[in-house]
């Protein structure tokens, strides 16, 4: 088959020459303005992670750096005192990692199986089951605090990372089930029928046919869950304390322990440590979003 | 020996009955075409045979074994889908071996079978490709290959050619026929295309609104349709239906077309059921059973023919033949004739009707008389 040459339609290239130039200037100007606006906080924090403290105090937060030093990154990572614990953010970074990775993997795995069962193995009242599961998507987190506190206490996992993994896994299944079910609905039923006639059962169809079709939605689930759980703050603050906190809750102690002087440069480096993993996941995972793998399934 | 039997089969979705008391039987090696318009229940019937749908009542019997409660994999069938349903992430070879893999057939046998079938369908060069890299015709072949590796008791085809363009469809149609002659397995083939049914099948089951209208050989279905629906559905262009009355003549009975000049068209004795004087009937004559009177073709063949004047309103030349739309006795008619003999639009010309080929139907029950 010859590949068709596909040219995207460019509405800005229509009309007179003067109009084309005018409209392109407006579009690019606006886009550049908003891009700079959104990038500026990251840029300012980044610069301040290199500036000495007295310079920041003297010249203010938003200013060009005179002298720069790498030392604040090391201090933020391993020796800075947060809430009386002088190990830097590394401890909390590891806490968050131990919470986010298992919760992401588990919630995505359950979401895939749920979505597959709900879209391809219809049963009586399946719409109700799907509706109840996805109700969690619309339930405010504050409403679930008390029930979760009760459950975590009963299970004896209060103030542990394991407890947070449980909370995030269960809360996350609502989202991953919704995503996966809606993705799998688009997979032609004929594939399942053909596999049934070929003699495959529930799990073989899942492993050999559905899962190989899933990378696009898998990436969506992983990015959504990883960034969501990593950045989550409420559960971490409510259900853990001290050295068991995830990084988002721990860096709040910057403003909480207001006795000593503020180390803006170290704090800036800490904030970047906290923000870096979701950012990297997004940058490297984003390109897989657009891949359509079902081409050739039908027709 | 019959390899497929369907007895008193009924299927309802909620309160809607989509299959009403279907009885069918296919002999070993037979090619049965299920044909009918969209929504007639033919695809549901195929799904029921495959075990992808349950029955509401009745029996499905494959080689003397009732399979109503058997899973699709235990029925020993293979199916080719309209969408081909090739597994998109597997290569052509993996698509073909998946069924054998599920049945724990050893690797050496799998390889040998794939080789044999790939050779039969001439798809060896495609074995390492993914379905997305294949053209429509190649996907069609692979879908058949996936069915053939199984060597099942029953082949099921669900409109397998409807996604192909016209030229390829005709090619694949004759390939399917060749393949069936070579493999010799019982086949059930669903289609809405009456030409596919006519060309491929040894027997055709015409369905309409969940009811089996007629089940017979292509020749019998075409020449002696059981009712007005079958007569109109099979054949292209459609059979002409004229409102007429039966009159007694010296030798037997004749017809007078409603709205005509009262000319009596004598019927052949014994070709139709019991008739009575003055009875209203629907007179059915296929477009190709008309021919220009000046050629005297029917007379030469020794057939009984009657001359009727036809007013031609429009012509549609197809190249090999010309389709004429016109009026006979004020009732609209479609006639097929040779391009050289076709009159110009607006002309009234005499045509012979071959009375040995015509059908009579009851206008109320629409059943054949």
Key terms:
heterodimer, A: MetI-like fold, 2 domains, 14 helices, disordered C terminus, B: 369 residues, Rossmann fold, OB fold (Dihydrolipoamide Acetyltransferase, E2P), six-stranded mixed β-sheet, five-stranded antiparallel β-sheet, elongated, MetI-like_sf (chain A), Carbohydrate ABC transporter membrane protein 2 (CUT1 family) (chain A)
Write the layout of secondary structure elements.
The complex is a heterodimer of chains A (299) and B (369).
Chain A: H1 17-48, H2 53-59, H3 71-79, H4 90-120, H5 126-138, H6 141-155, H7 161-185, H8 189-198, H9 202-213, H10 215-231, H11 234-239, H12 247-250, H13 253-256, H14 264-285
Chain B: E1 2-13, E2 16-27, E3 31-35, H1 42-50, E4 57-62, E5 65-66, E6 77-80, H2 92-102, H3 107-121, H4 136-148, E7 154-158, H5 166-183, E8 186-191, H6 194-200, E9 203-208, E10 211-216, H7 218-223, H8 228-233, E11 240-248, E12 253-257, E13 264-266, E14 280-285, E15 290-292, H9 297-300, E16 305-317, E17 322-328, E18 331-337, E19 348-354, E20 359-361
Parallel strand pairs in B: 3-8, 3-9, 6-7, 7-8
Antiparallel strand pairs in B: 1-2, 1-4, 4-5, 9-10, 11-12, 11-14, 12-13, 14-20, 15-19, 16-17, 16-19, 17-18
How would you concisely characterize the structure shown here?
The complex is a heterodimer of chains A (299) and B (369). With 299 residues, chain A is mainly α. Helices cover 69% and strands 0% of the residues of chain A.
